[in-house]
Amino acid sequence: MNNAIITIAFDADDTLWINEPYFQEAEKEFCVLLEDYLPQHSVSQELFKTEMKNLHLYGYGVKGFMLCMIETVSKVSNNTASLELINKTIEIGHDLLQKPVELLDGVTETLEKLKGKYRLVVATKGDLLDQERKLKKSGLQDYFHHIEIMSDKKESDYQKLLKHLDCKPENFLMLGNSVKSDILPVLEIGGFAAHIPYHMTWSHEQHDLNLEHPNFMELENIIGILGYL
């Protein structure tokens, strides 16, 4: 493997920087807003159902999350919610779009060691403007040869990325915190994948199966990849 890898791609949210805790904080705030209508856990379930229903329309990211919160307000309140409640919901989304970018431990050190030896790429889902903002604020831009904001992370999406990079699957390594999005599709197309667990994962991205594959690595943290390369 050591000699085969040419391109290393990194997921961004919860791999390079903190993301999911901010979403969970926002969701808790939203559920409190609607507790006059439903218990908080029930609001959370309704929001998730709405997110799943609209995923094919909105994709991933804060803007889709905001629209789903507003739709959930209408549904849960049976269209009786005040404009003030809608405005407070929008504020939660606006706050989410302005959160600080906090790098995870070992990220800069790892990129510093890999820079110049490999072609480094960001391959992430989410809103284009929001991910560009986070990347700019992170101070990591100069480490990367290419930034790909993907609408999804299925096999076909990775194949499209590899074609764009003119990279064969056997020369490609993906690092990320989601087994479902960052690992399984890459293994399916013949690439290498390293899972870096994060203590919070969105329920849509959770995956419980034990994974055994010759191209798969389970890491404790991002720095762990240096021991494989």
What does this structure look like?
The protein is an alpha/beta fold and 229 residues long. Helices cover 45% and strands 12% of the residues. The chain is built from eight helices and six strands; from the N terminus they run βαααααβαβαβαββ. Strands 3-2-1-4-5-6 form a six-stranded parallel sheet, covered by helices on one side. α6 links the parallel β2 and β3. α1 packs antiparallel against α4. It is elongated, with a radius of gyration of 19 Å. About 2% of the residues have low confidence.
Overall shape: it is elongated
Rg result: 19 Å
- Overall pLDDT level: 91
For the secondary structure, the number of strands is 6
- Percentage of residues in strands: 5-15%
Low-confidence sequence ranges: 202-206
Number of helices: 8
Biggest β-sheet description: 6 strands, parallel
Strand order of the largest sheet: 3-2-1-4-5-6
Order of helices and strands: EHHHHHEHEHEHEE
Structural class: alpha/beta
For the terminal residues, how far apart are their CA atoms? 8 Å
Helices and strands in order:
Elements: E1 7-10, H1 20-33, H2 40-58, H3 62-76, H4 83-96, H5 107-114, E2 119-125, H6 128-138, E3 146-150, H7 155-165, E4 172-176, H8 179-188, E5 192-195, E6 216-218
Parallel strand pairs: 1-2, 1-4, 2-3, 4-5, 5-6
